[in-house]
Amino acid sequence: MVPQLSWYLALSAVLFTIGVVGVILKRNVISMFMCIELMLNAVNLTFVAFSSFFRDVQGQLFVFIVMTVAAAEAAVGLGIIISIFRTRESLDVDDASTLKL
Amino acid sequence: MQENNLLSLIIFAPLAGATINWFVGRRVRNERFIGLIACASVGISAILAFYFAFKPEGALRAAQPVMDHLWTWIQVGIFRADFGLAMDRLSGIYALFITFVGLLIHVFATGYMHGDDGYYRFFAYLNLFMFAMLTLILADNFLLMFVGWEGVGLCSYLLIGYYIDKEEAAPAAKKAFIANRVGDWGFVLGIFLLFWLTSHAGAPSISFFDKPAQDVVSALHTIGAMKPETFALSALWAGGITSVAILLFIGATGKSAQIPLFVWLPDAMAGPTPVSALIHAATMVTAGVYMVVRCSAIFTNAPMAMFIVAIIGAATALFAATIGLAQNDIKKVLAYSTISQLGYMFLACGVGAFVAAIFHVMTHAFFKAQLFLGSGSVIHGMHHEQDMRRMGNLRKYMPITWLTMCAGWLAICGVPIWAGFFSKDEILWKVWSANSAGMPPGAAKALWFVGAVTALLTAVYMTRLMVMTFWGKERFGAGHADEPHHRAEHDGHSPEATASHDPHTPHESPLSMTIPLIVLAVLSTVGGLVGVPYALSSLTGGHPENYFEEVLSPAVSHVRSTGAGENGEAEVHFLSPKPEPVDGKPALKPASEPVEAHDPHEITQERLLALISVMIALSGIAIGWFMFQRQPLMQMPRLIENKYYVDEVYDATIINPILVTSREGLWKIFDIGVIDGIIHTIGGAVVRFGRIIRYMQIGFVRGYAAIILAGALIIIGYFAYAGANVLRVLVK
């Protein structure tokens, strides 16, 4: 049984939904961070699937850009997380809420 | 037409002088250097003006003006204004006496302003004034003339307010500027309307002259070739030639201090005396007369406007002369005298005697500059005392000033031989014999009567001035010693300059001041001889023509003639023995036709009137002498001593209502209520909206994430919905 395009899209959708739910529900900042990575990679999967389906290399090129951005984001994000942890001794995002009124 | 680029040097030399004095003079602070630059730049102008006026084929001889087209200033559609200069017979005469009298006053000022802190500033302003005034005179179109017009207004403002630490100077300067702005409003509207009229006549132009090289036709010729308008009040607001004329005349009333805008000129005496002599007597205030004469082609086609000019002129002459009777400040008397004499000039313009008006402008420039400089010399000698009640017997101390001022006095009174006699007599004769179209019967005689009464009053108040100042008992010294001393301190002079001589004794002025006085006294004495009318010169068998009239007459239009359109031809006819009809219409003005002008009946009448003028002048002097010799401090009627309360009336009826409306209405209601209200409403709404919106800032990262998700879902939902619609359409 040859995998269809729709299988990849369905998998991607599932992964993305897991990521969204995780970002909204999880309070641990590391978990949220991982969920964001999950969403990015779900999108990457879509890109690759369509690229292969349409026989167009552009989708694959875009994946590299996304991966680069994700790497940069990971570096910056982890830096922020570490500095938050140093000041607040906590990884709970609800503790970092000084921006509210 | 002659082109000559040197002409522009006449106006740019004083500008260069002003620039040098402003930037270099303020650092050098050397009075000799500053005075030299200022006088030299005006001297260059004077030399060039004389060269262009009197050279072979010069402005005063040639049929065509000397032109200098510098650049095209504005060209928009059919509108065109050049930066171009032109010297014709009219502007030539003006340029001559402005540069010459201006030069003398500059020399005088080097002495008068000695020791003043703002020496460089004063001369920079004075030179700038000369630049603006000469631009006004030599401009070849209305718009450039307006530039000069505003320029002299600015310089007048700066120089009236020159003594910045004097409390009356700043309001006086402001008053002059604002009164002039009212007039400028009329002037600008007049230019607009003129351009509109000429456009409708098919030759849009605001130029004074034909300029074939630039393809410009003269607006004055266009208007002059039109049919004269009727003598009716309704013509004033009909938007035709009469409206143009009356709007231009409003401009002239501002600049030349006529009723109702004359109030600024007496206050303008707060400026230094050379300024009063140059700007507020000899040159700037006559710009209105210049403008009216320059536009004579417009005025002669607007008989109603002419009549109003004559009435305003006569009324101003009489009104100001009566006020002059009762003033105690020597400069105020001269200021009202200036207003009165300007009234004479407008009276002459109003009856079509444009040549006589310019003649009086010229002689007035001589004798009034002389009188003002003389009063400056007196004020200087008296250590800045201006009140005539504290003078007396000054001829003992200041013989040169006294003698020279006598020349100016006799000239303004109209004693024969002295300049004022010829010009004033000419005006009175022209008024008496005026018969321009539509004037009510008897109006000419009534105007003449007003003029004659004014002449009498002039002789009386000038005699009063002379008697109070130079004759009688000394009223300065011990009794009032403290007051002159006190007054010496509040002018711009540094204390050392006044402390160097005895503050109680008047002294004669230095040479730099007396030489201009002497030159002007000589001019006041003989300057009128260029315009001796035939009726008088024939008594001694002199030149058959009035030389001044012969020169100037071709440059102005004549009442009921065919107007300025035929200037070039009219000049030819004028010089020929018998004028022929021009363009089918006969040239009706008798004065421009030598043959008719020498009608024996008229000559008898003219001689009789001249005799009457002399009698008036002499009796005026006699009245003044006997009234004030005995009682120099005679109490004058309160009404005229307080200037008919004109200032108070203006305050109550115009200025205060404007102030109150501005403060209570415009500021407290409109500005605070409406403008501020709108702004506060908008600002308050933003603040209130922000207060509501800020509850979105919950501060929890997951909340923001949820909001982003919701937004994304909305957008995706929209596209999904729209895409479904598209699909449905495609499927069908």
Structure description:
- The complex is a heterodimer of chains A (101) and B (732).
- By secondary structure, chain A is mostly helical.
- Chain A has a domain at 26-92: Orthogonal Bundle (Helix Hairpins), CATH 1.10.287.
- Chain A is 77% helix and 0% strand.
- Chain A has helices at residues 5-25, 29-54, 58-88.
- Chain A starts with a helix and ends in a 13-residue tail after the last helix.
- The mean pLDDT of chain A is 90.
- Chain B has 732 residues and is mainly alpha-helical.
- Among the domains of chain B are: 655-696; 698-732.
- Helix content of chain B is 66%, strand content 3%.
- Chain B contains 29 helices and 3 strands.
- Chain B has helices at 7-28, 31-54, 89-112, 119-138, 142-160, 169-200, 219-224, 241-255, 264-267, 273-282, 287-294, 296-300, 303-324, 330-350, 354-381, 399-413, 419-432, 443-470, 482-489, 495-499, 511-526, 534-540, 547-552, 567-575, 594-597, 600-630, 638-641, 646-693, 701-731, and strands at 2-3, 66-76, 79-87.
- A 3-stranded mixed β-sheet of chain B has the order 1-2-3.
- In chain B, helix 2 packs antiparallel against helix 3 (89-112), helix 3 (89-112) runs antiparallel to helix 21 and helix 14 packs antiparallel against helix 18 (443-470).
- The termini of chain B are far apart.
- The A-B interface holds A 20, 23-25, 27, 32, 93-94, 96-101 and B 694-695, 697-702, 705-706, 709.
